[in-house]
């Protein structure tokens, strides 16, 4: 029962502790082309060529931003996609589909008008008027947003997929101890997490109650990393709101699991001079925040950087437009893609390893002399 509850709360934490990250809108402003008059034809040709190169770079930059950004619809490619539910709390619950925002339209719900601007929803009048401050930031009211964005949708799909995957694997053990089907691939990984991560860092006495969470986090991050490498434009683990939620869950479980010795070593370190203990307490309290922060940033930065580098190299093929450069950049992209497969598993391993290490420090029993 405790193991099942741990899995349940792990998913609940990811789904509900996640602040819905509404980032850049799809309609990014295109670079404006400067118009100038030149005295001779050669200068004009040079200007046109430079302007064309600038346009290509702008399109590549916009494509990368679109790939990394969260959105209110699941956009696969031009003309292919589907809207997602928009859920707002504004003097009541307002629910409608994101298709109401297509082509800059204004969504009207119960006499209220809403407009999407740069990935956020603002309350407007019937004309969609936005007011701006001196920094050109909208000052319109923003309703409380619980929308199912693209990243949230993928999280829900992944949660359902993992539930049925491991439920099916568990059923195969009811008829025998030998793994079958997907269990043949998953069992060695589960055993590795248990024997090489959980037991060495937490200890044989306490590791079992954390195994469900550790396995959930490991496979959840790994599978999402793999999905992020597909051309679907899914960037869940490259979204800092998601990694923040995962790190927050680890932080909460660590503090709740902390035993007397854990808190004693933070606030009143034994075995050191009394005058030094207050200074060490401050350092340890800072460490409580730094640990989950490092978990959040490490996963976010590595996965985001991988996406940006791969797409930038692909973009170089279109910038150079050379039969010599194209195969070289294409080969480099393939090599880096294979490296990203390793990074996808490595980041899941590191997050799980550090999580187990923090759990182990919380439940460790010290011998007092």
Structure described in brief:
The protein has 369 residues and is mostly helical. The chain has helices at 2-16, 41-68, 150-172, 183-202, 208-228, 240-257, 260-267, 277-320, 325-363; strands spanning 73-77, 80-83, 85-89, 93-97, 107-109, 112-117, 120-124, 144-145.
The total number of structural domains is 3
What is the H-and-E element order? HHEEEEEEEEHHHHHHH
Fraction of residues in H or I helices? 55-70%
Total helical segments = 9
How many strands in all? 8
Let me know the average pLDDT: 80
Assembly context of the chains: single chain
Beta percentage is: 5-15%
Strand order of the largest sheet: 4-3-8
How is this structure best described in words?
The protein is mostly helical and 369 residues long. It folds into three domains: 2-19 and 151-363, no CATH class; 24-69, no CATH class; 85-147, no CATH class. Helix content is 59%, strand content 9%. It is built from nine helices and eight strands. The protein has a three-stranded antiparallel β-sheet with strand order 4-3-8, with no helix packed on it. A three-stranded antiparallel β-sheet has the order 5-6-7, with no helix packed on it. Strand 6 and strand 7 form a beta hairpin. Helix 1 (2-16) runs parallel beside helix 5 (208-228). The longest helix is centred in the last third of the chain and has 44 residues, at 277-320. The protein is globular and about 65 Å long.
């Amino acid at each position: 029962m405790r193991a099942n509850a741990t899995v349940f709360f792990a998913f609940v934490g990811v789904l509900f502790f996640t602040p819905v990250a509404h980032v850049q809108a799809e309609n990014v402003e295109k670079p404006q082309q400067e118009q100038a008059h030149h005295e001779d034809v050669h200068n004009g040709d040079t200007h046109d060529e430079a302007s064309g190169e600038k346009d290509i770079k702008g399109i590549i930059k916009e494509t990368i931003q679109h790939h990394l950004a969260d959105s209110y619809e699941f956009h696969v490619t031009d003309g292919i996609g589907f809207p997602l539910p928009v859920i707002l709390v504004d003097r009541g619950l307002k629910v409608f589909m994101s298709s109401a925002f297509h082509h800059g339209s204004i969504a009207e719900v119960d006499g209220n008008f809403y407009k999407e601007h740069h990935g956020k929803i603002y309350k407007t009048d019937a004309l969609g008027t936005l007011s701006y401050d001196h920094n050109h930031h909208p000052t319109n009211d923003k309703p409380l947003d619980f929308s199912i964005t693209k990243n949230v949708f993928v999280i829900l799909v992944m949660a359902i997929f993992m539930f049925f995957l491991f439920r099916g694997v568990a059923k195969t053990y009811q008829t025998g101890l030998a793994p079958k089907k997907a269990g043949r691939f998953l069992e060695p990984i589960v055993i590795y997490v248990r024997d090489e991560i959980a037991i060495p860092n937490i200890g044989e006495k306490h590791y079992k109650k954390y195994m469900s969470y550790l396995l959930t986090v490991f496979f959840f991050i790994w599978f999402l990393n793999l999905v992020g490498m597909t051309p679907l434009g899914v960037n869940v683990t490259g979204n800092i709101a998601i990694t923040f939620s995962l790190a927050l869950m680890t932080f909460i479980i660590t503090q709740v699991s902390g035993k007397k010795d854990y808190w004693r070593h933070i606030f009143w370190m034994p075995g050191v001079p009394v005058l030094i203990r207050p200074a060490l307490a401050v350092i340890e309290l800072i460490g409580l925040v730094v640990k989950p922060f490092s978990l959040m940033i490490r996963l976010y930065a590595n996965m985001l950087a991988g996406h940006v580098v791969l797409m930038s190299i692909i973009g170089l093929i279109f910038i150079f437009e050379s039969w010599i450069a194209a195969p070289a950049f294409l080969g480099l992209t393939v090599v880096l893609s294979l490296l990203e497969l390793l990074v996808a598993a490595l980041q899941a391993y590191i997050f799980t390893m550090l999580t187990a290490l923090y759990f182990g420090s919380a439940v460790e029993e010290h011998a007092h002399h």
